[in-house]
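Q: Hi! New to this. If I give you a protein sequence and the SMILES for zinc ion, can you show me the bound structure?
A: Yes, paste them in.
Q: Okay, here:
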Amino acid sequence: MRRCLPFLLLSVALLFACQTVPITGRQQLSLVSSESLLPMSFSTYREFLAKHRVIENTPQAQSVKTVGARIRQAVQEYLSSQGLSERLKGYQWEFNLIEDKSVNAWAMPGGKVVVYSGMLPVAQNDTGLAVVMGHEIAHAVAAHGEERMSQGLIAQLGGVALSTALSQKPQETVNLFMQAYGLGTQVGVLLPFSRVQETEADRLGLIFMAMAGYDPRAAADFWQRMSAAKQGAAPPEFLSTHPADETRIRNIKEFLPEAMRYYRPR
Ligand SMILES: [Zn+2]
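A: Thanks. Here is the predicted structure of the protein with zinc ion bound:
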């Protein structure tokens, strides 16, 4: 009986360490506190920007900021109307375009988004950009980075150091963050999101772009263009972490009727 106790405690702790993703209602593990994670994310993001050429004051850079701000505002208003504003507590949204021909984009915890200039020809216009950014904003809103790190904590520590993991600033959290987003290698590439998270980001991304007034019917064409770009000599980086395939395009089409219910054309 005594031996069961740690497992019982672990189960109870995990029960309280769950949260629900808005709209999809999926239960996710949440062992990493925003208080410890967001400052790391923000400083890593700043460091990344310092090491890359941030494009400022061009129409393209302005598009990235405008599309990002419109989607962010629509999502904030929606979450607020549902009494879920807490979800975005401490977020400091930022949308930057950097000079880099990789077909890539990513989001760090707390709303720090980067779009690479190589993505622009595939996006083609603001609506295409809204597909990419809706997807990235969805990863941030659904806290997929935190979830992945929480799973990593469980995998690395098991139940043994759960109390440590649950404390404010465990070294393990820092280590996992550096593994995930460290600047040593390619930022955003080391922590592939799971298939479940990718599909969820596709579904929420469509809804978020629709809420902001971008036509979600454009998404399937965007992913077709991504798929075509993949046929080139160098597969886009975005695709190595964001698998684009027929399944994804089929899912997008399946999610479309739901997204259309949120669509508010401007
Ligand atoms: Zn993704």
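A: Residues 184-190 have pLDDT under 50 and may be disordered. Let me know if you'd like me to explain how to read the tokens.
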